[in-house]
Design goal:
The structure is a single chain. The protein has one domain. The chain has five helices and no strands. Helix 1 runs antiparallel to helix 2, helix 1 runs antiparallel to helix 4 and helix 3 runs antiparallel to helix 4. The chain is elongated, with a radius of gyration of 14 Å. It starts with 11 loop residues before the first helix and ends with a helix.
Length: 111
């Protein structure tokens, strides 16, 4: 289903998994495990988005050891995007990460 066609009704279970995925990397792992047996597309969407944000955050941490200011900017950007993503999950809407969200969906489509 194209992203511009939002799911009319998102199950509470799928929303819960998407929200859990936002709460720390351990929450993301819990959401992946919960979603592995009974896939919910809405939860899978946010699991893929959050994996991308986690990887960007790790890259920002590595970058901050070399160029602290740039690493700080990356972390602030990830925090803002994470908050917007969490709001989308709570509202039951698929919200792509700006600029790179479609790539996350493509790169991690096996999840």
């Amino acid at each position: 289903m194209p992203l511009d066609q939002q799911e009319s009704t998102v199950s509470e279970e799928a929303k819960t998994r998407a929200i859990i995925a936002h709460i720390t990397p351990i929450g993301w792992i819990v959401a992946v495990v919960q979603n592995s047996n009974d896939k919910k597309e809405f939860a899978s969407f946010y699991i893929r988005q959050l994996l991308g944000l986690i990887l960007i955050s790790i890259a920002g941490s590595i970058l901050s050891t070399v160029i602290p200011f740039v690493g700080w900017i990356v972390h602030v950007g990830v925090l803002v995007i994470w908050i917007l993503s969490l709001i989308g999950a709570i509202n039951g809407k698929k919200e792509l990460t700006p600029a790179i969200g479609e790539m996350f969906q493509d790169w991690f489509k096996g999840m």
